[in-house]
Each structure stands twice: as structure tokens, then as C-alpha cells.
Amino acid sequence: MVSFAKFAVLASCVASGLAASPFFTRQGTYEEVLVAMKAVGGQVGTLHAAIQGFPSPGTLPAGLQIHMNATALVKGLDTWTTTTSTLGQFDAPQCREQLDIVKTFRPEIEGSLTGIVEKKAAIAALPIGGIVNLIKQDLGLLNAATEKFGNTIITACPADMQDEPKETQAKIAEAFKVAIGAYNA
User: Fold this and answer.
1) How many CB atoms lie within 10 A of CB 43?
2) pLDDT, tens digit, 9 for 90 and up, residues 104-116
3) Which InterPro entries does the annotation name (predicted)?
């Protein structure tokens, strides 16, 4: 009985070690990266619509919808980043495809960040004061996830194609700086 218990513990340790080993880490496929990127685009659109549709005076359900959409977008960005990180570098056509998708939703990212600043007074007027802090927290999480996303796409693209994502990342980072600053004021 004692020897079986020792064997079970040893087998469990070996299995855990092998599962954590980079040798057995599952590599994502480009198809998964493409699906994840398209999902991010949809999530950006959903968040943008929630922000643009936030009424004045605001409502608590509309404020919570912005939060839930922001949370989903953070998860989507993280999924894309993780999947892409396991894939390695894109070839030129794959990079172009990813950048073209980003190009389609970049205006909605920038519009969402401008819109959330414009809606701050209506959000602050909600009867539950914690919504402003929740949006502030969401902006911080989105900024961090977007920065990782940007760094990953830059790294994944061939060196001669990295200027475009660097420029996009810089402009979006500036828009986040403005929005976060407004919610810190």
C-alpha cells in the first residue's frame, strides 16, 4: 500500500512536470490567431457602440454594459496575444492581414477613448459613485492589454513591416493617456 502511494505521488509529479514543460506546450495556429483577431474587432465594435449609446442622463445598466464590454475586450486581447506568442513570427502576407484588420477597428478604439471622456460627466452623475472608478480601472486594464497586443503584433511582423504597428500603437497609447488622465482628474 505504501509503495503504491509513493508511485502515485511520483507519477503525479512527473506528469505535472511534463505538462508544464515548454516541450509539451501547444502551439497556436495562424487560423486561431485570425479568428482571435476578428473576435477582437467585434469586441471593439461592441464596446464602441455601448460608449456611443450611453445616454445622458446615464443609466446604471448602460454604465455596467460598458464595464462588461471592456472586460470582454481585455480577455479577447489577451487571447490573441497568448495565441500569437505561441505561434512565432508572421510571414509578410499574414502580417499584412493582421494589420489590415486592426486598421478597420482602429477608428473605433480611438472613438471609444474620446467618447468615454465625453461621457464622464454623465457617468459621474450615476447614483452609484463607484462606476467612475470602475471605468478608470477598465481603462487601465485595457491600456495594459492593448500595449501587450501592440508589442506582440510588432514582434510577430517581419522587421520591414514594423513601422505601421509601431505608429498605430503610439497613437492609441496617446489616446489612452488622454482618457486615463481625464478619469484621474
Assistant:
1) 20
2) 999 999 999 999 9
3) Cell_wall_mannoprotein_1
